[in-house]
Amino acid sequence: MSMHPITRAIRIRADQTAEREHSSPLHLTSSFTFEDAEQMRAAFADETDDNIYSRFSNPTIQEFIDRMCALEGAEAGFATASGMSAVFASFMAHLKAGDHLLSCNAIFGSTHTVITKYLPRYGIDYTYVDAADPRQWEAAIRPNTKMIYIETPTNPGLDIIDLAVVGALAEKHHLIFNVDNCFATPVCQTPMQYGAGLVIHSATKWLDGQGRVLGGIVVGKKELIRDIYLFCRSTGPSLSPFNAWVLSRSLETLDVRMERHASNALYIAQALEEHPKIAKLKYPFLPSHPQHDIARRQMKNGGGILCFELRGGLAAGRKFLDHLQMLSRTANLGDTRSIASHPASTTHAKLTEEERQAVHITPGLIRISVGLEHRDDILGDILQTLDKC
Ligand SMILES: *Cc1c(COP(=O)(O)O)cnc(C)c1O
Questions:
Q1: What is the pTM of this model?
Q2: What separation in Å is there between the alpha carbon of 184 and the centre of ligand 1?
């Protein structure tokens, strides 16, 4: 029977045990046994798909991978202990000394550190291009460019990158197109449809959606995933079976959760857009967003994140956090509970003023991860704290 991706994300499961449980079993084991020497030999020789050791594969982890492949329209995947280990594995498996990586200045902070601090140590060079203008990127491609790596929407600036434009560019120059799809999630946007060969997630965020476990995954074309699997199998950043079990249960509600996160976010964005304390508010599905047309084309909804610039700058940003009564002050995003963050004094405080400006992190920028509480309670807390900024 042919099924929609969200149905498959609910129905695909690890094999039942003899108990015939309805919910998926948790295969909490580090290794697997064999009937005899021959079965064991064949498994180690890659002649069978038998599980050997949970660093390589495990049925509970495979269930999470298969569900994510169904959602992203991918052939294969590998699940990792965190989003960063998925990002790092995608680089290490596909880049070598002498290669060049094209990326944007507007990317997740730890990814920026890997690209600018660690990859150059191994002879891998990079160029950052302007996220807002992919038509300029072709000029930055060199003979040794191997991969284009992007996020859209970007964190925390919420720029939208045109996936069709970048996908066509990657195809023309035979580059691996690698997309961190964490902010949108696969129920909102599927980059492989635009030519991405690899799609990465921090499962810690919306995929878990309840702030419980760290996890990551990379899915994509079979031949590209094969190299990532071989790298991870030897170096060991694998996801724990317990976290995979938690994450698979979360995928069963991803579509309904994201619809509510996005409708709450749109409601709050509309209510705050003209607020006198706010200089500029950004949300992909507001017509005022600079790449609104692209967002409408490639995203099913505007996602659960919005950001705004307070007129009062750094001091107002800190006051905004101090006076919150309900929203959480925490580093995570993509939770049932709404979260506020002030990047200039926290996640991006180590950057120079110039680096912050390049990624549009102004002193009074506030990022809100909109949760599943009643929308008027979320808005009410933001309005009362704005009064004090
Ligand atoms: C959080 C995040 C990551 C890193 O994921 P971890 O699970 O924290 O390692 C990567 N990319 C984006 C866009 C993120 O928000």
A1: 0.96
A2: 13
